[in-house]
């Protein structure tokens, strides 16, 4: 019996609604498989935890998480209670950095049965490799003076190691896919880091001569995600550019509530973390209507990471089948609740 020990952090808002649903689905898959099991260890780290303890997670939180095979997280953020930069950096970004989850992979693809807002959605199937540990996300800088003299300085950090690591990951992924990598740049406007980014890309691509490449400024690329997503295979992007592109990826599929993600530790020192692209969605929290598909597809990425690809494929097939029948939440044009979607999916998994 293969056992996977998973740290579960539902977090805030709809994270608390969709994570339990995804766990039910994973339990069903374990039963179907017969040879694997999950042991869930929940952690209440969140904005509620912050209100009680003055921090998002305990000081030894990272050490605690080290003992698991993976971390399964919902979403972080409740801006009415804790400023977003405090909650994000106190939990999500803290884990990404401390646990050296330097790559964030985020697929988007045309999904049967989903109503894409694109008038003519071609059969797109792309994956964004987002640099996840540096770039525009940096605590280097500060604020000085007050009022009209106030100054805010925010430095971006681009290391050769981190940049090359993201790019090599993208090229190796492309070798297993359709053999194309697009670089997201902005070297016309950002005069130091982005010409550097382009230079590293030009060097790295020489090692993957069979992979085709393209490079677009992020503004044009964002527009191409809308106007012709089908031309892309793998896209490599800095932390911020990747963040923005992947919300667009969700939107063109039909809803950001569907988009999955995996924060990958590539050096094997720490577990990886699985959490969907979307946030805590305070505007719909508590109504029971959050789309669980992003969290459930994220569970599929965790199964793939464990090498349980067949089980992951079974889950994806069942998801497509349920959505195709119109059992879906309001954000993608249906009327089902979070729980109704999950229940239908579980029935489908058992019957397929
Ligand atoms: N990875 C994360 O944990 C993460 C990601 C993004 C935002 N956040 C945080 O979440 C909070 C809200 O941020 P935001 O509003 O910018 O982004 P968001 O992703 O939470 O919501 C954006 C929009 O998408 C909708 N949406 C998101 N997920 C959905 C789902 N599963 N089903 C149906 N609709 C869904 C929301 O209702 C909202 O209208 C903030 O505190 C922010 O910092 C956290
Ligand atoms: O900015 C972030 O990385 C948080 C969130 O928007 C995400 O995409 O995970
Ligand atoms: K999330
Ligand atoms: Mn984001």
Automatic annotation (TrEMBL):
Its cofactor is Mn(2+); Mg(2+). It comes from the Bacteria. Its EC number is 1.1.1.83. Keywords: Manganese, Metal-binding, NAD, Oxidoreductase. It catalyses: (R)-malate + NAD(+) = pyruvate + CO2 + NADH. One of its GO terms (molecular function) is NAD binding. Residues 5-345 form the Isopropylmalate dehydrogenase-like domain. InterPro entries: ICDH/IPMDH, IsoCit/isopropylmalate_DH_CS, IsoPropMal-DH-like_dom, TTC_DH. It is an enzyme of class 1 (oxidoreductase). Pfam families: Iso_dh. PANTHER family: D-MALATE DEHYDROGENASE [DECARBOXYLATING]. Belongs to the isocitrate and isopropylmalate dehydrogenases family. This is D-malate dehydrogenase (decarboxylating). It comes from Pullulanibacillus pueri.
């Amino acid at each position: 019996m293969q056992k996977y020990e998973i740290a579960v952090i539902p977090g805030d808002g709809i994270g608390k609604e969709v994570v339990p649903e995804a766990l039910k689905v994973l339990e069903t898959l374990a039963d179907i498989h017969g040879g694997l099991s999950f042991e869930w260890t929940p952690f209440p780290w969140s904005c509620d935890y912050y209100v009680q303890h003055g921090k998002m997670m305990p000081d030894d939180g990272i050490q605690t998480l080290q003992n698991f095979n993976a971390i399964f997280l919902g979403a972080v953020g409740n801006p009415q209670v804790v400023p977003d930069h405090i909650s994000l950096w106190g939990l999500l970004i803290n884990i990404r950095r401390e646990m050296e989850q330097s790559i964030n992979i985020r697929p988007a693809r045309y999904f049967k049965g989903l109503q894409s807002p694109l008038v003519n959605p071609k059969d797109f199937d792309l994956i964004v490799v987002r640099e996840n540990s540096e770039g525009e996300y940096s605590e280097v800088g500060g604020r000085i003076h007050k009022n009209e003299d106030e100054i805010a300085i925010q430095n971006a950090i681009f290391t050769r190691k981190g940049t090359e690591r993201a790019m090599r990951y993208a090229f190796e992924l492309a070798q297993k896919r359709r053999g194309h990598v697009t670089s997201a740049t902005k070297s016309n406007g950002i005069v130091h880091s982005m010409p550097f980014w382009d230079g590293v890309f030009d060097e790295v691509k020489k090692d993957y001569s069979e992979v085709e490449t393209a490079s677009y400024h992020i503004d044009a690329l964002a527009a191409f995600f809308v106007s012709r997503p089908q031309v892309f295979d793998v896209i490599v992007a800095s932390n911020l550019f990747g963040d923005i592109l992947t919300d667009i990826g969700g939107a063109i599929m039909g809803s950001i509530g569907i988009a999955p993600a995996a924060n990958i530790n590539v050096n094997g020192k720490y577990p990886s973390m699985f959490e969907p692209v979307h946030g805590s969605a305070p505007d719909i929290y508590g109504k029971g209507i959050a789309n669980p598909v992003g969290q459930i597809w994220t569970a599929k990425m965790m199964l793939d990471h464990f090498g349980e690809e067949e089980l992951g494929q079974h889950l994806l097939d069942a998801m497509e089948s349920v959505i195709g029948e119109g059992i879906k939440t309001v954000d993608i044009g249906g009327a089902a609740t979070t729980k109704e979607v999950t229940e239908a999916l579980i029935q489908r998994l058992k019957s397929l």
